[in-house]
Write a structure and sequence with these properties.
alpha+beta; 434 Repressor (Amino-terminal Domain)
């Protein structure tokens, strides 16, 4: 029987098991033979492979697939202190989300992606791309973007929220079948979600082109995505006059109008040369007092994503699939369906 050994690696790492931990739970399996098999040497009998995949809770048909959605093709906003174990679990969870999106596309039609990425290497800047994107999205030039989830989904970006470790902000990627996906941390404040969504849209709009070899490529991409997000949410032409001689007392009103964090407004004022570096440091320090940098005053509105959950409900209610039916049709465990579709929450223990 022909199995894709990479799918076994996927299942093992998704379950958070090392080779030694898995081998210790399977009679007759040694870590050394498992290691050789996972390197593609094929030294395990079919019966042993099936025993392993059953223990991992994945159906046999899982071994016939070939899921890519490779993490290196994804763009992350994450903290540098994130552990390897947590990073691995996040990456495999995200790859499963991409796989689910693609599997659903066999039964439903996702909205067409109606945005055209532009190549930074052809002379565009993050700011000009952000302006162009706002125009395509028909956002009123001098107004904030209010229903950000809805607008992104209407233009073909599938957005999914999960509760993840606080050291993870979000990720954007193109699935194996070409569907653009953004996953963000559900537990964050609304203003932080909005900036993360804009940041990840910036990646989708700018970073799906080959990039010449440069040092610090990832840092460059992150800086460009931040510049895109700042212009996208706080257009320089319309916010600049409000940021000259910025005061702490005016941050609340600006936050309420532009639907961005006070910290983002302070950075924007500095980047647009509306305040000098000393004033930027002063305002940042004052904002940090009493923990206000993490828990700012003021409510910021945000809507909710619906495409992914509605697609799941359509399979259940209109196409009359049970979770077991979906599990069989998609070749994935029922608990994966329940984890990502029913609760819409991904909980990762630090």
């Amino acid at each position: 029987m022909s199995f894709n050994y990479r799918q076994l690696i996927f299942a093992r790492e998704y379950r958070g098991l090392t080779q030694s931990e898995l081998a210790s739970n399977i009679v007759g399996l040694s870590q050394s033979n498992l290691s050789k098999y996972e390197k593609g040497f094929g030294l395990l009998a079919d019966e042993m492979v099936l025993k392993i995949i059953k223990f991992l809770g994945f159906p046999e048909s899982w071994l016939q697939h070939n899921i890519s959605n490779l993490p290196e093709n994804a763009h992350y906003r994450k903290r540098t202190t994130i552990t390897k174990k947590v990073k691995t679990e996040i990456e495999y969870s995200i790859r499963l989300i991409g796989y689910l999106v693609d599997q659903m596309s066999d039964s439903i039609e996702w909205p067409e992606f109606r945005l055209t990425p532009l190549n930074i290497e052809e002379g565009y800047t993050p700011e000009t791309i952000a302006k162009s994107t706002r125009k395509i999205l028909k956002i009123t030039p001098n107004e904030p973007l209010k229903s950000i989830f809805t607008l992104f989904e209407n233009f073909g970006v599938i957005v999914i929220e999960f509760e993840i470790t606080e050291k993870f902000d979000g990720v954007s990627f193109i699935t194996d079948k070409g569907n653009p996906v953004i996953v963000i941390n559900k537990s964050f404040s609304n203003d932080r979600k909005r900036f993360t969504l804009a940041h990840e849209l910036g990646h989708l709009m700018m970073h799906d082109f080959p990039i010449p070899d440069k040092r610090n490529v990832e840092k460059i991409k992150e800086d460009e995505a931040n510049r895109f997000a700042s212009e996208f949410l706080m257009p320089a032409e319309f916010i600049k006059n409000s940021l000259f001689n910025l005061r702490l007392s005016s941050l609340g009103q600006l936050k309420s109008y532009w639907l961005t964090s006070m910290a983002s407004l302070i950075r924007r004022a500095r980047d647009l040369n509306c305040i000098n570096e000393d004033k930027y440091i002063y305002l940042s320090i004052e904002l940090s007092r009493d923990g206000k940098r993490k828990n700012e005053d003021g409510f910021v509105y945000i809507d909710e994503p619906s495409l992914f959950i509605e697609a799941y409900k359509l399979h259940k209610n209109e196409l009359e699939y049970s979770d077991v039916d979906l599990s069989n049709a998609f070749s994935i465990p029922v608990d994966v369906i329940e984890r990502f579709c029913k609760t819409s929450r991904l909980r990762i223990i630090k």
